[in-house]
Design goal:
This protein is of the alpha+beta class. About 50% of the residues lie in helices and about 20% in strands. The strands form six sheets. Strands 22-23-25-26-27-28-29-30 form an eight-stranded mixed β-barrel, surrounded by four helices. A six-stranded antiparallel β-sheet has the order 3-2-1-6-5-4. Helix 1 packs antiparallel against helix 8, helix 16 packs across helix 17 and helix 20 crosses helix 21. It starts with a helix and ends with a helix.
Length: about 850
């Protein structure tokens, strides 16, 4: 007897309901646990963030104060351990030298913010004082509240190691950083009890604290004498072995507390909402379990209908009658197209999809199933946006009769766009959108094979930007990218649509034009490009300018191979840069020969040092007042095995460009010092440095290594530096020169007067002397203006306590004029041409005998 299906369904429903209840209960427990963990995590993270913020701000405060201390300490060491300071302050203080000539004067207040500067005698009596940039008669121990004798005693001890002493004292009730050092001529001086003291006072004023507050984001930064409880954080305690304790305090941002107050209520509210949703979901799940049997019956009814469609793929599903009139559309249709599916029922499928209807007719006629072979089509959605699709379909038959079609439509728009995008990226530069090297080569191969002839030439212009690297170094790579995009736009504006503009990388661009028939038309194009590219470009409110050099090659005149034409244009570009930049040059066969010769010279130079082909000549330098030789300038020569004797102008620029200048400079410096060891100890050796060497970080170490290797006294070595060093990176150059001066060598500015802002360099940089350029000396005996100019340079050098040397003296009248103008030193062909080390020693002996 058959079993009644009703009880079976009831038992199934009961088991489904039990499972649903158990699963929903466990789900609620998990949700509660997650919310509890989330709340605890937010509390923990807020506390950790508060502590990290306090530690970070305390570290920033320590860095800010350390930076300030280091700046003042460095300045004190530079002034105290200075021979001129010792000469003008020992015994009594030359106030004209110290204050009026600003050697230890008001600039310390304006430059370093030092409210007080004092010079104390060996007995700690105040000999000289400056308060707020003005001379003062107030004694240091009257103005400063603190144990100054202990500080001075510590300064005397630390001066043995070239160090200073410092402590925090009170000045007018405010904390002050007081540093002290012995004023001594050099490290060999040991009678410290007879030396004076130099005292710097830096008061932690509200203005200075405000600067640190802004720089390191320390709100309401305050400084007070004494210590505060550790619990009152954030704070920074400044305490030395002597002096007073100083405490810096500021307001913490308490970011964690803000996050906690902002997010915890949200989490609670979100928890309430989730609880309501879970409750509703649980009710629905239980209800759904009761309806499961009914759903199973409905599923069996529709199972056969969707089985065939599932085999065809799925995106949105459709059905038609034999005439391809829509009878069914799935809900997915509305989601993907934005169109209401019920509005399209009863309308032809081809009205919506653009496809070949004959394909479905043929399928019905031949009775063959299409299977999964797609039909390519397209459609427009509710917003009239075009979509590319694949139509999958199969016949629906009842017996042998065709009753319609079923299938799916798959949207492949993204795939097609991705493919197009990949194709575009593979042929275009991602930054500027211009063609890349791959696209350029394809274009050249196509056009060189098809279009290039004598009457219709193809011109290839190779462009390289001038002055682009300083923009990257100064403003950053983001600004450099902006300049490259602006340049790309400028080039595009100058060209035709039929021309190809490409970027090879960096600041290299290529223009290929087939619209120019003559060289004159190409010249006009180059002039337009140069004018457009050099137009000012705005970066952060600043106008920057770049230029361009252009090399031009033509096909078929110069070749029909893409790589050859590119190479010839690059050779012409090199010629344009070598000719002065911001120019254009057409390729000529002779250029290739010059390139080959240059490369050969470069290879020869790499071997020359190992083959001992370089040599040094020495041009004597004379004292104008004593009429004696005081030293010589080392000049390098290259005895080339094939080209003969080469002067520096023939190979130094190439050495700088290829990086060989460093190895060559090391050899010159070492050989010059070794030769100088065979001279009298009072003779100086002068060596030129290249501006390229200042762009590296190892110059000071290299000079130090030569001094140690040769054991020459540092004061006998003078390094000559051109003004271009300061023009390229003034801050870095100043740092490097200060380190060189710390080695004990002399620094001299070469070719003085030929650059820019020479006076500002002399005041800011630690030069010992200047060399007047030969161009000023040549007209000295011919015009009064030249004489007045040289006189002004000499007077200015003497006013700054610099040794003035005139170079390029070629006549007796020039020498006489310079002697009248009290020039310190002289060198030139009239006095002596550059000679070997042996001849130089003979000249010295002859001069000493006379």
């Amino acid at each position: 007897m058959p079993q009644d299906p009703a009880p079976i369904l009831s038992n199934d429903a009961a088991s489904y309901t039990a499972i649903a209840r158990l699963a929903s209960r466990n789900f609620i427990y998990v949700i509660c646990a997650l919310f509890i963990m989330a709340g605890l995590s937010i509390i923990y993270l807020s506390h950790s963030l508060n502590e990290q913020q306090i530690q970070h701000s305390e570290a920033d405060a320590a860095i800010g104060m350390s930076s300030r201390q280091n700046k003042v300490s460095t300045a004190l060491a530079d002034y105290a351990f200075w021979g001129d300071a010792y000469n003008n302050t020992q015994g009594f203080v030359d106030k004209a030298w110290a204050f009026e000539r600003d050697n230890i004067g008001p600039s310390l207040f304006s430059t370093y913010g030092l409210e007080g500067v004092f010079i104390l005698g060996p007995t700690e009596a105040t000999r000289y004082g400056i308060i707020d940039g003005k001379l003062s008669n107030i004694a240091a121990n009257e103005w400063i509240s603190g144990d100054l004798p202990a500080l001075l005693a510590l300064a005397r001890i630390r001066s043995v190691e070239d160090e200073i002493a410092y402590a925090y004292f009170s000045v007018k009730g405010k904390p002050a950083f007081v540093s002290a050092a012995i004023i001594r001529p050099d490290s060999s001086y040991v009678q410290y009890d007879q030396l004076s003291y130099l005292l710097y006072v830096d008061i932690l004023t509200d203005a200075e604290l405000k600067m640190i507050e802004v720089a390191f984001e320390l709100p309401n930064l305050k400084a007070s004498l004494g210590t505060s409880p550790v619990s009152q954080r954030p704070q920074l305690r400044l305490q030395e072995d002597i002096g007073n304790a100083v405490t810096l305090q500021w307001k913490g941002q308490a970011l964690g507390r803000k996050i906690l107050s902002n997010f915890l209520p949200i989490l609670i509210l979100f928890g309430v909402l989730v609880a309501m949703l879970v409750k509703n979901l649980r009710r629905r799940v239980i209800h759904s379990s009761m309806m499961l049997d009914k759903a199973q019956r409905d599923l069996r009814i529709s199972e056969q209908r969707f089985k065939n469609i599932a085999e065809a793929s799925s995106d949105w599903i459709w059905e038609t009658d034999p005439d391809q009139i829509l009878t069914y559309l799935s809900e997915r249709f509305t989601q993907l197209t934005g169109l209401l599916h019920h509005e399209w029922i009863g309308r032809p499928l081809q009205e919506f999809l653009a496809y070949d209807t004959s394909q479905l007719v043929d399928m019905a006629k031949h009775g063959n199933a299409i299977g999964r072979k797609p039909i390519v089509c397209d459609l427009r959605d509710r917003n009239n946006k075009l979509h590319y699709c694949q139509l999958f379909a199969r016949e629906v038959r009842v017996g042998n009769q065709l009753v319609g079609y079923q299938g799916t439509v798959c949207d492949i728009t993204q795939e097609i766009e991705d493919k197009a995008r990949i194709e575009h990226i593979s042929h275009h530069d991602s930054l500027t959108g211009l063609a890349n090297r791959r696209r350029l080569i394809h274009y050249l191969n196509d056009h060189l094979n098809e279009e290039s002839n004598i009457d219709c030439p193809l011109f290839l212009l190779a462009l390289d930007l001038d002055r682009f690297k300083p923009i990257n170094d100064t403003f950053g790579h983001a600004a450099g990218d902006l300049v490259l995009r602006q340049v790309a736009d400028a080039i595009t504006r100058c060209t035709r649509e039929s021309d190809l503009v490409a970027r090879l990388g960096g600041d290299e661009f290529i223009v290929v034009t087939t619209g120019c028939r003559t060289y004159e038309q190409v010249e006009h194009l180059c002039q337009r490009l140069i004018e457009q590219i050099k137009a000012p470009i705005q970066i952060d409110g600043n106008d920057v300018n770049v230029g361009t050099s252009i090399g031009i090659a033509a096909a078929p005149h110069h070749g029909l191979n893409a790589m050859d034409v590119l190479r010839f244009a690059d050779i012409a570009l090199y010629e344009a840069k070598a000719s002065g930049r911001n120019l254009y040059r057409f390729y000529e066969p002779a250029m290739n020969q010059r390139i080959l010769e240059r490369r050969q010279l470069e290879m020869d130079m790499r071997l020359a040092l190992h083959r001992h082909e370089f040599r040094l000549d020495f041009q004597p330098r004379y004292s104008m007042s004593l009429q004696t030789i005081i030293g010589a300038e080392a000049l390098v020569r290259w005895q080339h095995p094939a080209r003969g004797l080469l002067n520096p102008d023939d190979f130094i620029p190439l050495a700088e460009e290829t990086g060989l200048i460093v190895e060559l400079s090391d050899w010159v410096l070492r050989e010059a010092c070794l030769n100088a060891l065979s001279w009298n100890d009072n003779l100086m050796i002068s060596v030129n440095l290249s501006s390229v060497e200042f762009q590296r970080n190892d110059l000071v170490d290299r000079v130090k290594a030569v001094l140690e290797h040769t054991s020459i006294k540092p004061q006998r070595l003078e390094l000559e530096i051109t003004e271009s060093v300061m023009l390229e990176d003034a801050a870095s150059a100043l740092t490097t020169m200060s380190k060189l001066k710390a080695l004990g060598v002399r620094l001299s500015i070469d070719d003085f007067g030929t650059g820019y802002s020479s006076l500002s360099y002399l005041r800011s940089y630690p030069f010992d002397g200047i060399k007047i350029d030969r161009s000023f000396i040549m007209g000295l005996d011919q015009s009064r203006s030249s004489e007045a100019l040289v006189d002004a340079i000499i007077s200015m050098g003497h006013a700054l306590a610099l040794t003035v040397t005139a170079e390029g003296i070629e006549t007796e009248d020039q020498l006489g004029k310079l002697n009248e103008l009290t020039c310190d030193q002289a060198q030139g062909f009239y006095l002596s041409r550059p000679v070997s080390s042996t001849l130089f020693r003979q000249i010295v002996e002859e001069v000493e005998l006379n």
